[in-house]
């Protein structure tokens, strides 16, 4: 039994919950702090009673001050700064600094940070020769990335000194800097193109594009509009509180694994189509719909439960995902350079139909970040296999910010409990006596 105990007339009075164990009549009052109650408090009254919450839909597994999501209002803040303002005025590298250091850098701090990242963009030759070149010719670039990130831990034995601040900072720099190099290398290998070394005269996103697309020209000319759009997409994907991959990072990090191993686990989580693969599903869905004439029929099929409208709906956002609005705007700028992705008209019509349909309105289903991002990536020439890789590059900053935060918090090892629903104790049966 739980009751709310809010003193009338005083908005400043602390809220609390009273839990009564009806088996014993014992009660306990637990304060509601930061919109939650501490499990450590009520578990004293109810030892052995587990809070059953598969998928962690109502469980806060940590405290965090990195990003804030208000799903009802459609708000996303990084360290208090609205995502819209960061997308308009900042750069991915500045946002990475913000996520990791809690404050925007001064000009001097930013110069130092950018210089450090730039000096760590190269990967050890053996990462490429022994690991990346060892993959099968048609290896998926995300599978290669997961493995290559894990392999980095064997190149930097100092990474195990996770409580040494200098070592920790160095691994953070290395990971953020090397991610685009590994990502581009994985792509080049998967299409049989030679590896392109980083060009440290270029900014972060431009350098990545150079490593992706350079052929024989001495200096790759990047298009400023495409570079800017990619940098904005990197900002939008840099963090999103306790999503699946960040949770993987925190869980593995809580065991005090080195950051490369923890980051590889996070990458592996992102590889899953329910997480990092949704924009790919959007492109496939739009391709399948094919023309404006088929939109109404497709929406009808969605309403009958035959399929889902990919890129719509979100576990947390029950409003327009603020990132989706920015992506939609960037799409126009990109298409002005690349030519319009022919699937855009289908996407716009689909959004218009869905947003005025009672099925989607009543369930509060709005476009999420993935609805338009795949169209941009496709127009820029990225193969669909690269979509989760493009997500992993910027999310590395968020993963690392959470890793640094959990170590600073001295977080206990993640070790959830379970509701056991298997056999009760029974004696071993010798093989000859088992019934077939
Ligand atoms: N299309 C049609 N109906 C939907 C959709 C959708 N995209 N999403 C939810 N619904 C319906 C469900 O059928 C359900 O209806 P019901 O109440 O009649 O049974 C209701 O809305 C609630 O849906 P849930 O599945 O309970 O919502 P949940 O929060 O568990 O799922 C999710 C969120 C997985 C994102 C879901 O909306 C979905 O599958 N969307 C499509 C995939 C997608 O775009 N994923 C990207 C998410 S953003 C990211 O990961 C970066």
Can you give a write-up of this model?
The protein has 436 residues and is mainly alpha-helical. The protein is built from 18 helices and six strands. The strands form two sheets. It has a three-stranded antiparallel sheet with strand order 1-2-3, with helices on one face. A three-stranded antiparallel sheet has the order 4-5-6. The longest helix has 26 residues, at 165-190. The chain binds acetyl coenzyme *A. Acetyl coenzyme *A is lined by residues 275, 278, 302, 308-315, 363, 365, 368-370. Acetyl coenzyme *A binds next to loops.
Secondary-structure blueprint:
Layout: E1 2-4, E2 16-21, E3 26-31, H1 39-45, E4 67-70, E5 75-78, E6 81-82, H2 83-89, H3 92-101, H4 107-118, H5 125-131, H6 141-155, H7 165-190, H8 204-213, H9 224-236, H10 244-254, H11 259-271, H12 278-289, H13 295-303, H14 322-338, H15 344-355, H16 358-362, H17 370-379, H18 387-409
Antiparallel strand pairs: 1-2, 2-3, 4-5, 5-6
Helix pairs in contact: 2-9, 3-9, 3-18, 6-7, 6-11, 7-8, 7-18, 8-9, 9-14, 10-11, 10-18, 11-18, 12-17, 14-17
Bound molecules: acetyl coenzyme *A.
The site of acetyl coenzyme *A (ACO) has 16 residues, from loops.
């Amino acid at each position: 039994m739980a009751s709310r105990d809010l003193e009338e007339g005083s908005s400043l009075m602390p809220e609390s919950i009273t839990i009564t164990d009806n088996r014993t009549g014992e009660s306990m009052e637990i304060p509601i702090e930061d919109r939650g109650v501490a499990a450590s408090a009520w578990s004293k009254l109810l030892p052995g009673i587990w809070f059953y919450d598969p998928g962690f839909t109502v469980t806060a597994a940590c405290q965090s001050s990195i990003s804030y999501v208000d799903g009802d209002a459609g708000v996303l803040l990084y360290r208090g700064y609205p995502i819209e303002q960061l997308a308009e005025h900042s750069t991915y590298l500045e946002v990475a600094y913000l996520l990791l250091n809690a404050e925007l850098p001064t000009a001097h701090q930013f110069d130092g940070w950018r210089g450090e990242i730039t000096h760590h963009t190269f990967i050890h030759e053996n990462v490429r020769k022994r690991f990346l070149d060892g993959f099968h010719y048609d290896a998926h670039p995300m599978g290669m990335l997961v493995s290559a990130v894990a392999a980095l831990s064997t190149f930097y034995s100092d990474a195990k000194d996770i409580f040494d601040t200098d070592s920790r900072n160095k691994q953070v720099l290395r990971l953020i800097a090397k991610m685009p190099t590994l990502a581009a290398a994985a792509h080049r290998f998967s299409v049989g193109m030679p590896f392109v070394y980083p060009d440290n005269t270029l900014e972060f996103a431009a350098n990545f594009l150079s490593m992706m697309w350079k052929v024989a020209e001495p200096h790759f000319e990047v298009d400023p509009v495409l570079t800017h759009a990619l940098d904005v997409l990197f900002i939008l994907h840099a963090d999103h509180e306790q999503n699946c991959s960040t949770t993987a990072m925190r869980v593995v990090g809580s065991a005090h694994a080195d950051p490369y191993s923890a980051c590889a686990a996070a990458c592996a989580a992102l590889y899953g189509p329910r997480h990092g693969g949704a924009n790919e599903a959007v492109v496939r869905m739009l391709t399948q719909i094919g023309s404006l004439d088929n939109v109404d029929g497709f929406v009808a099929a969605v309403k009958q439960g035959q399929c889902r409208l990919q890129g719509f709906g979100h576990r947390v956002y029950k409003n327009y995902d603020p990132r989706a609005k920015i992506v939609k705007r960037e799409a126009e700028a990109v298409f002005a350079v690349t030519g319009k992705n022919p699937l855009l008209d289908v996407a716009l019509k689909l959004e218009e139909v869905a947003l005025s349909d009672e099925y989607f309105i009543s369930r509060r289903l709005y476009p999420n970040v993935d609805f338009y991002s795949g169209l941009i990536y496709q127009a820029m020439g990225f193969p669909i296999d690269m979509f989760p890789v493009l997500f992993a590059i910027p999310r590395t900053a968020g993963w690392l910010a959470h890793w640094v935060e959990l170590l600073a918090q001295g977080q206990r090892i993640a070790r959830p409990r379970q509701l056991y629903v298997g056999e009760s104790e029974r004696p071993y049966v010798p093989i000859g006596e088992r019934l077939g």
